[in-house]
Amino acid sequence: MFHQNANRPRALARMQVEFEYFLLYYQFIKHAFGLEFAPGPIRMRLYFDTFPDTEEKTAQFKGYLLGLTKTKRWRTVDIQREDITEVRTRNHVLLQCLDIVFGSMSFRLNDKHKEKLADSSRRRKRTIAKEQLYRFILAEIGKIHPRFNIGISTSLHGDANRQWSDPYLHWNFVPADGVFESTLTKPRRKGKKENPI
User: Fold this and answer.
1) Ranked by mean pLDDT, which of 62-66, 71-75, 98-102 comes out on top?
2) E strands, the chain, where?
3) In angstroms, rounded to a whole number, what is the distance separating the alpha carbons of residues 131 and 135?
4) Cβ-count burial of 57 within 10 angstroms (0-12 exposed, 13-18 middle, 19+ buried)?
5) Strand pairing class (7-9; 178-180)
6) Cβ 22 vs Cβ 61: under 8 Å
7) Cα 31 from Cα 171, distance rounded (Å)
8) How many angstroms separate the CA atoms of 13 and 138, rounded?
């Protein structure tokens, strides 16, 4: 999941601003994985980075997630309160790997691959290495999704079941009632098409 800052929500209620982290992740968990298409009963464990808010708000958030399992769409999903937990990424190798994947995507989306040494036309070795990692990850995703574009959500090609079955999906979170502010995007050179690969 990623969010393009140029997609600005309109007139948010105070509660929406106050609970923005929790609302975002609630919607992500509810919609991004296609859990309603799971073929049979599954037990779900949710690992979050340290919650950025009070214990009271965190408890409310967990309650809403547990409430999802009471809906008809999530009838095959089981989540226990103790399975919604906070973790430190540095203590989990798989989460560190995910951080690398997400970091490489963010690196490219924010044009950090173009950064050069001060007073030089050369890029740092670390910048070059990060771009190579990004290209490798992109090539692997391209095997699953030919013509993958890092800047947009992955197409389901009209088959909602792919939310469950595809091994990788990329979701650009866009507010339903938002406005696109082009002044917050990178300027494009005229006549040049951006190739994400």
Assistant:
1) 62-66
2) 7-9, 42-43, 46-48, 77-78, 84-86, 178-180
3) 6
4) middle
5) antiparallel
6) yes
7) 10
8) 38
pLDDT in tens, 86-118: 988 888 898 888 888 778 777 877 778 787 877
| CA distances from residue 32 to 51, 80, 171 in whole angstroms, order as listed | 20, 20, 7
Residue 194 CA to residue 36 CA, distance in Å, equals: 36
SS3 2: strand
Closest CA to 131 of 114, 148, 116: 114
Closest CA to 134 of 160, 113, 156: 113
Q: Which helix (H) or strand (E) holds 62?
A: helix 55-68
Residue found by looking up tokens 């595809």 in the block: 166
Do the bridges between strand 84-86 and strand 46-48 make them parallel or antiparallel, or are there none, so unpaired?
A: parallel
User: Cα separation of 36 and 75, whole Å?
Assistant: 8
In the chain, pLDDT over 70 holds for what percent of residues? 92
Q: C-alpha 8: how far from its chain's center?
A: 17
CA atoms within 13 A on the CB side of 27: 14
> For the chain, how many residues are written?
197
118-154 exposure pattern, b = at least 16 Cβ within 10 A, e = fewer: eeeeebeeebeebbebbeebbeebeeebeebebeeeb
